[in-house]
Amino acid sequence: MMWIQSVIEELKELAKTGALKLHSGASEAELKELEVIYNKVLPEDFRTFYKFCNGFETDEDIFNMIMIEEIIENKKRFNNSLYIAEYMIYSDIWELDISPQNPNDYQITNLTRSGTTITLTRSLAEFIHRFLKGGVFEKGGLYDWHEEILKG
Fold first, then answer.
1. 2 pLDDT more than 70
2. pLDDT bucket at 90, cuts 50 / 70 / 90
3. In this structure, are residues 130 and 145 in contact, taking their beta carbons and an 8 Å threshold?
4. pLDDT of 115 higher than 90
5. For the domain that residue 95 is a member of, what is the CATH number?
6. Rounded distance, CA 134 to CA 28, Å?
7. Full residue range of the structural domain in which residue 112 is found
């Protein structure tokens, strides 16, 4: 399994090329506010990621790892769902589903075209790496991964 620190190194390198824009890291107060508003404890890798950068955005695929303040604003808009990433101004959304018993036991899910939810991964590092590898549409990217899972 890929570790969040290695993905952070990938993000640093890509940011130098201008391929994506990293937002300045979130504060502990912002992370706590999100946890209080959603009544959930964030997984450690999410805390590490958001302390490094408060999300990122790309122009090419119009994909964003959503900033903490926007996640908080989205709580009412999206029925309490904790969305962490979006494509093309919320045309597609990826959700974080955290176990109430263990915050480090979570899954990142996405809706299928038929309206059912599919689990992509239980690793933020893997999710970000797949995006960095193939964007939203390219081989190895998020939609390709989605299809791989559906085909079994």
1. no
2. confident
3. yes
4. no
5. 3.40.1580.10
6. 31
7. 4-151
Q: Are 61 and 136 in contact (CB under 8 A)?
A: yes
Separation CA 40–CA 9 (nearest Å)? 27
Asked if 143 and 112 touch (Cβ cutoff 8 Å), the reply is: no
Tokens 């903490």: give the residue. 68
Number of separate domains in the chain = 1
Q: CA 114, 116, 120 angle in degrees (round to 5)? A: 115
Q: How confident is the model over 55-85, as pLDDT tens digits?
A: 999 987 799 999 999 999 999 888 889 999 9
Which H or E element spans position 124? helix 124-134
The residues pairing with 111 across neighbouring beta strands, listed in sequence order, are 117
Of 53-62, 113-122, 125-134, give the lowest mean pLDDT range: 113-122
- Which DSSP symbol is given to 64? E
